[in-house]
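ok so for the tutorial part 2 we go from a plain amino acid sequence to predicted structure tokens. step 1 is just haveing the sequence, like this:
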Amino acid sequence: MNNKLVDKYIKNHAEPEAELFSEFPPIKADNVLIIPAFDETNVFVERFVESFYKRAVLLVLVINQPDYIANEQAQLSLVAQLKARYTTIHHIQHLSLLSVKGSNLFILLIERFQEAKRIPRKQGVGLARKIAADCAVVAISRQWVASQWIGSSDADATLPSDYFNTFDNAGDAAAAVFNFRHVASGDAKVDSATELYEQRLHYYVKGLQHAKSRYAFHTIGSCLAFSAMSYCQVRGFPKKSGGEDFYLLNKLAKIGDVVSLPTRISIASRVSARVPFGTGPAVAQIIDAKLNHSNYLIYHPDIFARLRQLLQALSNNLREAPSVVQGELDECSNQFLSDNKFWTMWARWQSQFADEKQLQKAIDDWFDGFRTLKYVHYQREFSLPDIPLEEALQYQLDTEF
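step 2 — the prediction. this is what the tokens look like for a chain of 401 residues:
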């Protein structure tokens, strides 16, 4: 680990809670996991303790609440239950370190739901995750936690027993994403809607894999992990009310590999309004619109074929004039590149980078996960409108997409 880089991050970019945590007495743990929690019961903590009772793990738990919600009863109840069940071994301001009797489990409890400490609306879960991850960085930098990896999850996720062992398979990657599945709730409407949305998520990633995009991975906050040094290098989670997982992975993919791990995390199927977009709100929208496989619309598969053609044309013609690449692309792709001033950047990179690997990286960084999504939406709006999921999945099967 680059200690100077990490120390610089902690000093200049970490949240205040990280500095407070650095004043705590040392602990000894093998791994660290971060979870933000809002409007939750203590069930998920009990589940975590039961699963990892025999391991030495630090759970960094940020009990948070947005500043536009006044009722803090759920958060007060959760904190009271945790402090009653586990032993408080140190406390500073709104941070408490709890230990689980008879084990090497520790819980760093961070209270960000009181009126003066609530999370600003625009910073949302992104700030909550950043607070937790910044404290995890402190623990790793002070060698309180042995592993250099930080696991990130949510209260609705159930981690497999070998969860922490799989970090060894990530090697020198910047980040890792876990496989996942949604577990049926028993509510037919919720389960059906969740199945549709999960199929959409997998369909999109398979489309990016077909296109040979560097950003072909899931971006789900409950199913990711990252190295502490890489996290510091990209200055942590963005403080956003949603999509913080997407934007963090987007940054990490530019400095290292993002690997997919086969270990599967189970996520509860439920309707949620905790974030403005994502699985919970999407499931609610599917239920409200009474959608099914035949009327749930999804990206046209030809978009990913065009994306593949575009990326290949760029890689195969790194030193060529724009007209050479343009001649290999469809009209909509050409228009997208022109609208986004790509060719100006292309000329600049060609003069700036003598090494073709550097030139390719510049293209990869520019055509990142966010711009890829913009490209998909551009194609949808101007050329290839959405089609029913049923039809798209059949195309996927017929073409091994």
